[in-house]
Predict the structure.
Amino acid sequence: LRHRQLLALGDEGKTLAVAGAIVDGKINNQRVVLQRQQRRGEATPPDEGARGPFDTARFDRALAGMMRMRQAGLGAGNVETLRGYEGKAAAFYFDAVRALLEPGWGFARREYYPPPDPFNALLSFSYSLLQKDVFAAVNRVGFDPYLGFFHELEYGRPSLALDLMEEWRPVVADALALELVNRGRLRPEQFERTGSAKRPVQLGEAGVELVLRAYGERLEATVYHPDAGGGGGQTSLRQAMRLQAYRLARVILEDGGTYAPFVVR
C-alpha cells in the first residue's frame, strides 16, 4: 500500500482527484452543519437555550460564498489552486459560524497559532482530539500518514491524516463545539486567560473533562455509511473514519476509481 501511495503521489492527476474529492466533501459537510445549526436555533425557544436572533444577512452571504468556492474547486487545475479555493471557503464558513455565536465568545475569525479567544481554543482542542483518531485510522490501514495528497509535505506533518481529517472537521469537531456553546453547556468564563504568548486562552480543568466526555459520545453516534456491513448500514462515527481510510486504500491499490468522501445531508 505504501509503495502504491508513493506512486500515486507522483501522479499529478491522481493527487488532484483525491484532493479535490476531499475538499468537495469538506465544504458540503460544512454547509450541512451550518444549516442544521441555523434550523435548530430557530426552532428552539429562548427559555430552552436558543441562541436568539443572529445576523442572517452575514450568514447567508457566507454560505453563498462557500458554495461559489466549492464550485470553483471542482474546476481547479492543480492542488495549489485548490488549496486557495478551500482557504477562501473556510474564511466564508467561519464568518457564518461567527453569526451563530454570542458576541461574548469574542470570535472574529479562525486563528490557529495561538488561538486568541475561547471559541478558537475550543476548536483547536477538538481538532487535536480528532487528529489523534484519524491518525490512528490511517495507521491501522497501513498508509504512511506523513505523505498526503492535499496538505503540503513538510517534515513532521502527518499530511495524509490531515487530508482525511478534513471531511470530519465539520461533522465531528465543529458540530460538537457549536452544540456545547449554543446549548449553554460551555461558557466563556470556563476558559482561562493564561498570560502566555504561546497559549493565551485555554479550557479549564472542568471544561476539558466536559469536552472529552462529549467528544467520546459524539464518536459513538450512529451514521449511515455505504461500506458498513459490507453493503451499507448504520455504524459509529469512529468506525466510519476507519471505513474512509479503507476506502482510500482501495482506490490507491486498485489504481482506479475515485475517492468518495463521507458526506452528510
